[in-house]
Write a structure and sequence with these properties.
With 141 residues, this protein is α+β, with helices and mostly antiparallel strands. The chain has a single domain, classed as Aminopeptidase (3-Layer(aba) Sandwich), CATH 3.40.630. 29% of the residues lie in helices and 40% in strands. The chain is built from four helices and seven strands, in the order E-H-E-E-E-H-E-H-E-E-H. Strands 1-2-3-4-5-7-6 form a seven-stranded mixed β-sheet, with helices on both faces. The longest helix is centred in the middle third of the chain and has 14 residues. The two termini are 22 Å apart.
Length: 141
């Protein structure tokens, strides 16, 4: 798979569509992964960047389960932690999205569940990954 940094609008549209969002992410950056036959198959959008608090939100979607590996995970978090010097990354995840919750749990994120935030009757989990947890994770060894 080929990393795609130069098409942030296309990556954001792919992720928004995949997550079922009717609106985009506003001012954002995007990292996509594409192959020659399907085009973009995975995307990560970095949005709601707050330089004063050094916090950024991450939203992601993939149409394939096999896109994520250790080196791509490093690339995903290199931008916020190494380039922007964020102290934390935040993701809002449906309580029903057990696969994504499992990934963030393995990363060492703290979870805060807010009832009905995603929709009536559906909680949203706010996952918070702090720089220290990322820097000490097994994914950087």
């Amino acid at each position: 798979m080929i990393p795609v940094w130069d098409c942030p609008k296309e990556v954001a549209a792919f992720v928004a569509h995949g997550l079922g969002y009717s609106t985009g992410f506003g001012n954002s950056k995007g990292l996509g992964y594409a192959n020659e036959t399907e085009g973009i198959v995975a995307g990560v959008v970095y949005h709601n960047w707050n330089p004063a608090s050094q916090v950024i939100e991450i939203s992601a979607y993939s149409s394939r389960r096999d896109w994520l590996n250790k080196s791509r995970l490093r690339a995903v978090f290199s931008y916020p932690f190494d380039q922007l010097n964020c102290r934390m990354c935040i993701a809002r995840i449906s309580e029903k999205n057990t696969r994504t919750l499992r990934i963030w749990r393995v990363l060492g994120a703290d979870f805060h569940t807010i009832p009905d935030l995603r929709a009536d009757g559906e909680a949203e989990v706010v996952a918070v990954l702090r720089r220290a947890k990322w820097k000490n994770s097994k994914f950087l060894r």
